[in-house]
Structure formats: structure tokens, C-alpha cells
Amino acid sequence: MNDINPVISCKSVWKLFGGNAEKYLASMKKGQSFEQIRQAGYIAAVRDVSLDIARGEMLVIMGLSGSGKSTLVRCLSRLIDITGGEVKVDGQDIMDLNERELIDLRRKKMGMVFQSFGLLPHRTVLENVAFPLEMRGQDRHDRRERAMEVIKLVGLEGREEYFPRELSGGQQQRVGIARSLAIEPDIWFLDEPFSALDPLIRREMQDEFLRLQEILGKTIVFITHDFDEALRLADRIAIMKDGAVEQCDTPDKIVLNPATEYVAKFTEEIEKSRVIHAEVLTKPINGYKLEGASISADATILQLSRQLIGDNRDILPVTNKDGVLIGGMNRQEALNVLLGEN
Amino acid sequence: MAIVETRLTGKIGSLTRLQITQFLFGLAIIFAIIKPLLPEFLVRIPVEMILPYDIWLQTLFDFIKDDLGLLTVTRGISSVLEWFLDITANLLYGKRRWPNIGPVPWVAIAVVAAVIGFWLKGWKMALLAGGTFVWVALIGQWKLAMQTMSVIAVAAPMAFLIGLLLGICAWKYPRFQRAIMPVLSILQTLPFFTYLLPAVIFFKVGPTAGCIATIIYAIPPMVLMTTLGLKKVSHEVVEAGHMSGSTRWQMLRYVYLPAARTEILVGVNQVIMLCLAMVVLTAFIGMPGLGAKLLSLMNSLKLGRSFEIGITIVLIAVTLDRLSKAWVVKQPEHFERGTSWFVRHKLLIIGIIAFIVSIILAQFVQVADHITRKQDLSMGKDIDNVIRAILANDIITGVTDWLRWFLITWVLIPFRNALLWLPTGSVILAMAAFGYFVGGRKSALLVVIFFGVIALTGWWDRSMITLYAVISAVILATLIGIPLGIAAARNPKWSEPILLVCDTAQTFPSFIYLIPAIMLFSVNDVAVVFAILIFATVPLMRYTIEGIRAVPSELLEAADMAGATRNQKLLKVQLPLALPTMAVGFNQAIMFAFFMVIIAAFIGTQDLGQELQKTLAGNNLGKNFVLGMCVSLMALAFNHIIMRWSNDRRKALGVG
Questions:
Q1: Residue A311 has what pLDDT?
Q2: What's in the GO CC field (chain A) (predicted)?
Q3: Is residue B332 a contact partner of residue B126, using CB atoms and an 8 Å limit?
Q4: Where does residue B19 rank: exposed (0-12), middle (13-18), buried (19+ CB within 10 A)?
Q5: Is B113 part of any domain?
Q6: Is residue A317 located within the same domain as residue A248?
Q7: Euclidean distance between CA atoms A116 and A193, whole angstroms
Q8: Which of A297, B16, B288, B328 pairs with A174 at a CA distance of 20 to 30 A?
Q9: Do A294 and A205 sit in the same domain of this protein?
């Protein structure tokens, strides 16, 4: 996250739907609300969004339906042309690319997973997974081999000759995931990949997804309408409403300090101690001397609950992964989080 | 002044649609009552006001044909087509042309058909496909059938290709689509004689012209289905294609077309069926085959042989329809990895082996190669006698004679005379009232223009005769078809088989329906109306059943829980919701009727069809086209009104 050059960087990106949208946007006054724009006859799907996504980071874009999250991710991959602003991928403004270059970018760097899978019904699992490779003209043998590799990776070995309709929803999405990984993309877009699945399978697929990300370490833009899912997966969450990003921050901080009322509504119902890690509550020691056993920075407050209740120190020493002391955590504050009192 | 104006417009604005409709309709009635007082141009367009469309068109056609050299182009096309037709003709019935290897023995073709049937849908289909060809051979109509098939074998792929390309263009370029859609709807309503004459003039008589007419006739549904299918491809599949880095060509080839497979194959099914329907009718321009034989047999009232040919045509139609429909729903099946090529292509290999074996067999066994006249099992004469015996039965002749008398004296003649007596202005106003009621000002205007053009062509009386046959037949069909449909829909045990029968009957080439009509009523107006009647009853029944069955079961349960009786449920719930669908059936019935009434020309009607048929003998393209447009415009006017109503109603009910 300390990478100076973000993989994807968008600056005040706008997407308006409606005739002559660019002209309208150019002449539009600043600070127009979604409603005002709608009264002018345009739908503002994306409103002045600026985001940087660092290499290896997982950014989850969270919003209810119609909040513009799907449109935003399509702007990042230029499935939709933006109306205003700038989207850079590895420093290259993607709106400057011609058709050939855009196709090239997608063939080399991008993979995408869709909510209802977007599988080609007339192709077997293997042929679906090999499709992007076929498009870029890889020879038959090569692409078969590579496709088999990813099929194994997502655990569909033995099903490679099946057709999509012969698979369950979860399995179909595994095919979608395998296909998006076939070209070894740097950037991985996932548009509500698990929303069409039933809750048990969804949970299983999330675990599977975290496992894959552990191995692959891609830069990920993940769309969801499920706040729990966002909290579970994200390095950072961007919460969208009416096309604009309301808040973009780590899960801990969003839960601890919601920036707007809208965000607060989501966090209200969340059991904060599950989300918040000791690190967030840790403060510099300022010369205090701390005694006794230390706690780990990446433990959640819930995991620490027994200790928090049993301990009688006011400040607990916190150490990071390498065992280095990074500061102290106020026990009272942590107990407040645990009991849901602010 | 301003005040007066606003009050005036205010008053017009406040008139309801119903009031305006009543006003227009009232005016139509007044026109009829005061006919003697009406100015002449409202009764009939006077001769000197009739515009010589036919001469203008003829000049235009001549200009295109000769001065622009279209004739050389079309003759060029026809020589290419002829080359293809010669190949299929040689292979199927041994016409002495390159490649000079035919004819393929009938056993070989029947066996291959059976294997294809098995591949597509198992034993039953194999039996149907193989059995059809065995029947054709044994009944002694192999050559006739193969003459017909040889044209279909060329026309269907051509129509498919052209339709597919046009469909892709229409999908890709909305402007092209807007331009082509009206042309397609005119093509779909033009009477087939209007296809035939240009085909003859531009592409010579015989198979080539027949083939061209067939191709053009079969293209429209292919275009529509292709566009529909491509538009329906799921958003995400398209995006997945883009994200996989497909170029435009790759998108079309690997994403859009395969994903639209179902609709495209439905288009193929329609192409094949329309090809068969048309190719039978090309008998009228001297195209040999089943149609020509049937035409001559019916003209000489050889009912037994007509009956046999009818069965052949029906069997071929059902086979082609079922095979292509099975292809639509056939999904690829996977083989485990490492399955050998031979296992994967088991049926292909069996097919090839069976084909070769039967060809070898045919070298040694004459019956397997071809059936001679003495060997065939045709019983034309016997059937003839049986039919005549049955028809001579007192009860049947009593019924048909009475029906004939009743229909002619009490329904057909009075109605026809009434239509002919009505002033043109009256008819147009009444149609405008309909149009206004359904679709407002725009529809009324459209209908007025359509009928106005007909009046101006000077073919008003002939058009009214056509219209009379259509309307009386469709009304009778409605009186029969809708109650039957309702009765069938209320009994689940019956609705399935009756739907199947209707579906099957709809695949028959329209020509077939004339056979029973002529058998029962011999050659006169009643036979025409009767043929239209059965032809039009089928869609009416079918859509009635489908409409009623499509009513959501929750609504029926709600009605049950509200304590509705069976009849209340039917009248208050099922029928209102089924009406839009039933209207589609009614529309189809009218379109079918317009088609059929023209075919019936050879029985000796006095309408547009008769005039159209006469033009076939000469090369008066202009007149042919004007007559064709008259039929087309009437059909389009009805089509517009009914479909508009159906769609509005559907929207109002919130069902689709």
C-alpha cells in the first residue's frame, strides 16, 4: 500500500447517461446533486469519483443497487466510456487508447468476473476458460494446458468437459473465476461475483476467494452490496451512494468513524468488535512503561475479549507481527467497543 | 378570436376517444344511407380520377429491367442458381446434369434421414424421418418429392444466409433496421402471386424462378429472428467477451452468434417451413414437383391421388418441422476426457456406413434403387371410389348441400353484395373509426391512407370481394375456433393434444387445406370460404388455448378463493387476461385468410387473386404489383389495428 504509483488511479470520474452528456457536464456548475442532475434530464451513474488503487490491494466497492458501483467498475475497464475525468491504468490514460490497444490491455492485464457468470453457453468448461487465450491467438495445446492449470486451481478438475448448464451456480462461478484468471491478469475485477449464490455457497466461495488471493496477490476491485462481505474481504472499502463515494477507508476505520450518516446506517448493525483490530486502537506510548504480556496488533477485539475482561491493566502493550512493540491500547476503550458503547 | 379558438380546441380535446369513434362510425352509416345523394367520388372513385399506377410502375420496372440492365444481373444470378439446382436435381432425382452421379437411391436417403432423426431426438424421430421417405418411395411419388426437395435444398440455405446477413446488419445498424422493417412487413403480407411474376420475368420460368420466389418469401422471418436473438444476448456474456479481449469479428463469431443460437435455429425452422409452403405454390409458374402434380390432380378432381399427395406433403412438412425443432432444443452433451474420436462421432460413422451399404444394396436390388410404377402401392383409384362413396352418402350430401345453400344464399351473397353496394367513403370511414378507437389519430390516418390508395388504384370492387371472403371466413372461424379453444383450454387432458394438433396443422403448406374443401363442396365460393375457414381456425384455437393457459395460477387461485364459479372465473378472469393473446391469433387468422383467398383463385373466384393469376400469363409487372399491394395494404391495415390493440391491452394489464 506504500507503492507510490497506484495501479489504477481515477480522478474526478463522471459518467452521465443522456443525450449530449459531455456537453452538459462541461457546462454544469460544480456541486450539483444527483437530483439536480436528474432534473436536467441526465442520470449521474458516477459522480466525481477519485480513487487510487495500489498494487496488491483489495478494494471493495460497496453500495446498494443503483448506487453506480457496477458502472464505476465498468469505467475502470472501459466497458463504458466515461463522460469526464480521467482513469489511468499503470500510468496510461485508458481513454486515450484506440480499439486495438484497449483489446491488448484487456488481453494482457485485466480479468473480470460477473454476477450471473457470463459464461458462453455453447462452450465446455475448458473452452470457456481457454476463451481469452483463444482470443489472443495462443495455440491450442498451450491454451489447453494453461486452462487446465486454472481449472485445477479453482477445484473443478474432472468437470472440464461439462457444459455450463450442467453445473451448479457455485461451480459456474468457479468457471467464471478460472476464465478471468487464465491470462494471469494484474488487475482483477469482480462484479458481485457471489451475489447470485445462496448463502452457504457464498460463504464457501468467499473462503475460496481469500485462499486464491493469498496465492495470487492480485490487485482487486471487488463489487458487492453486502456489507458483511465487504468487511470480510476488503483492505479498503469505498461506500457509494447516488454515484458518489461517501467514504473510502479500511474496514476498521469505517466502522469506528463513519464519515456520513449514510455510512453510519450500515455500521450500526455491525458487531464492531468483530471488525476492529487492536492496531486501530493502539496509541503511541509517550514514555509510559508498559508491563506484562502484550497483545497482537492484528487480533480483533472480539478475539481479545476474554483477556480484556480478565486483565486489570489500564493500558495493554501491543506488538506487531514481528513481535515489535508498537504502542499501547486503552483497555477501557476496547471494552467500550466490545460492549457496543461509544 | 383567441377565445373562440381555445374553446373550440378545448371542445375537441374533451371529446373522448369513444365519442370520436362513434362520430366517425355514425358518419359512415349516414354515408351509406344517403348513398344516392352522395357526390360520386365518395361512392366510387370515378374512372378519370384513378391514377395509372400500373403504367407508372410498369415504366419504372422496364427502366430498371432494360435500361439499368438489371435483367443481365438477374440472369447472371439465375445461372449461378441454376448450377446449384442442377447439382441437387442430379443427386436427388437424376436430372442429366453435372456431376452426373445421381440419383441417390431412395433407401440411402431414407436411412440417412432416420439416422439424423435418431441423433436429434431418438427412436421416434428416426421412425418419423425414415418412415416419411419410405412412404414417399412406396406410394410412387419419389421423383415428384425429390423435385420439390431439390429446390428446398438450395432455397433454404440461401434464404438462411441472406436472412442471417441482413439480420446482422439490422442489428448492427439501427438505421438499416428502420429502413428494412417496413419492407419486411410488406413482404410478409404480399400475396404469393406477386412474388411469382417478378421471379418469372427476371429469372426465367421453372425451377430457378421458383427458387428465387421461395428464397425471397422465406427471408423475412430469418431476419427478424436473427436480430431478435442478437439483441437478446445477455449483457454479461457480451462484457465477458470484451474483457477477454475479443476483436469485433471475434465478438460476432465467437460470442454473439453462438449465444443467439436458439433464435437463429428457430429462424431456420421457419425458413424451412416457408420454403416448403412456397415451393408447393410455385406450381403456378410451372415448377414441377408435388405442388404441380397436386394442382393438376385437383383441377381434374382426382380426389384419391390428391389425397395421397396431400399425405406426402403433410408428412414431409411434419418431418422437416420436427427435425428442425429438435435441432433448436438439442443441447451439446459432454464426453468424458479421453473418449476416442470414434465414440464421440458414433452416429456420424453409423450414418456414413448405412449410406454406403444402402447404395451398394441398391446396385443389386432394384426395389431398393427405385420403385417402378407397377411396384408402387398407390391406391389412388380405390381411394377415389371410397371418397366418392362416402361423399355420395345421403347424410353427408344432405349436410354439405344444405350448408352450401345456406352459406351462399344467406351469408355469402348478401354480405358480398352489401360490401359492393357500400360507398367507398363509408367503408373507409368505418375502418377509420376502428383505427381511431384502437390507436388514436395516427392509426386512423394510416388506415385511411391504406384504403384510400386501394380506392385510387381502381381495384376497389375486386378488393371488396377479396375482403368479403376473408371477413366472412374469419368470422365463421372465430365462431368455431374460439369456443373450441375455450372448451379445450378448460380441460387439461384435452388442451395438450389439441395444441399439438394445431401446431402440426400450422406446419402444413396452405395448399393442403384446399383438398378437403374441394372434396366436400367441389369448386365454388363455399369451398374457398371453407378452405380459409379451416386454415384460419387453427391459429384462433391455438392462441385461445395458449392465452387461457398462460393466466397465472395465482390469479385462478385468488378467483377460487373469492368464490367464483367456473363460468365466473372464465368470464371475469381468464378471458380478459387471455384476450391480447387471442387477438394475436385473430390477427394470424386474418393474415392466413388473405394468403389463402389468393391461392383459391384457381378455383375460380372473382377477386384480386383471379386478376393476379391472370397477370402471371403475361409480363404485366405493373398491374401485378398494384394488385399485390392492394392485398398487402388491406392485410397491413388489419394487422396494424389488431396488433396495436393487443400490445396496448397487454401493457394495460401489465403482462409483457
A1: 84
A2: plasma membrane
A3: no
A4: exposed
A5: no
A6: no
A7: 8
A8: B328
A9: no
- Reported as a single tens digit per residue, the pLDDT across B492-541 is 888 888 888 998 888 888 888 888 888 888 777 788 888 889 999 999 99
- CB < 8 Å to B244, chain A: 106-107, 131-132, 135, 179
Looking at the fold, whether A242 and A289 belong to one and the same domain comes out as: no
Kindly determine whether residue A166 and residue B246, on different chains, have CB atoms separated by under 8 Å: no
Cell numbers at residue B95, please?
436430372
For B586, list phi and psi in degrees, rounded to 5.
-60, -45
Q: Are residues A120 and A215 in the same domain?
A: yes
A3 within a domain of the structure (yes/no)? no
Q: Residues of A with CB below 8 A from B254's CB? A: 120, 131, 134-135
Residue A280, domain member (yes or no): yes
pLDDT interval class at B623 (50, 70, 90)? confident
- Place A31 in a pLDDT band, splitting at 50, 70 and 90: confident
Q: Provide the residue count of chain A.
A: 342
Query: Using an 8 Å Cβ cutoff, are B102 and B92 in contact?
Result: yes
In the structure grid, which three cell numbers stand for residue A61, read together? 466497492
State the average pLDDT for chain B: 88
- Per-residue burial over A35-56, b if 16 or more Cβ lie within 10 Å, else e, is eebeeeebbbbbbbbebbbbbb
Going by pLDDT thresholds of 50, 70 and 90, the confidence category of residue B14 is: low
In a domain, A190, yes or no: yes
Q: Report the distance separating Cα B121 and Cα B326, nearest Å.
A: 6
On whether residue A91 sits in a domain, the answer given is: no
A137: helix, coil or strand? coil
Whole-angstrom Cα Rg for chain B: 27
B70: its cell numbers: 438489371
B621's CB contacts (< 8 A; 6+ apart) are B57, B58, B61, B197, B198, B201
When pLDDT is averaged across residues A103-126 and rounded to a whole number, the result is 92
- For testing contact with chain A, the best of B235, B236, B244, B257 (most A CBs within 10 A): B244
Does the CB of A163 have a partner CB in chain B at under 8 Å? yes
Number of compact structural domains in chain B: 2
For residue B80, the surrounding DSSP H or E stretch is helix B70-93
Q: Which range is least confidently modeled, A317-321, B461-465, B598-602?
A: B598-602
A181 and A156 co-located in one domain: yes
Angle at A124 between CA A119 and CA A130, to 5 degrees: 75
Q: Which residues contact A24 (CB under 8 A, 6 or more apart)?
A: A16, A18, A40, A42
B283 plus B429 within the same structural domain: no
Residue where a domain stops, chosen among B273, B307, B341: B307
CA distance B587 to B635: 9
| Per-residue pLDDT, B383 | 83
Helix (H) or strand (E) holding A8, with range, is strand A8-17
Verify whether the Cβ–Cβ distance B335 to A165 is below 8 Å: no
Which CATH number goes with the domain that contains B172? Answer: 1.10.3720.10
Nearest to A161 among B242, B258, B336 (CB): B336
Q: Are residues A262 and A148 in the same domain?
A: yes
Among B307, B322, B350, the domain-final residue is B307
Instruction: Please compute the mean of the pLDDT values over residues A194-213 and round it to a whole number.
Output: 89
- Domain of A62: which CATH number? 3.40.50.300
B250·A135 Cβ contact <8 A: yes
Signed CA dihedral, A209, A210, A214, A217: sign only: positive
Angle of CA points B500, B501, B504, to nearest 5°: 85
Q: Which residue's C-alpha cell is 376473408?
A: B470
Instruction: Report how far residue A277's alpha carbon sits from residue A337's, in angstroms, rounded to the nearest whole number.
Output: 11
**pLDDT (0 to 100) of residue B169:** 96
Condensed to tens digits (0 to 9), the pLDDT of residues B568-621 reads: 989 888 999 999 999 999 999 999 899 888 888 877 777 888 888 888 877 788
Binned at pLDDT 50, 70 and 90, residue A83 comes out as: very high
Which residues have a Cβ under 8 Å from the Cβ of B330 and sit 6 or more positions away?
B120, B121
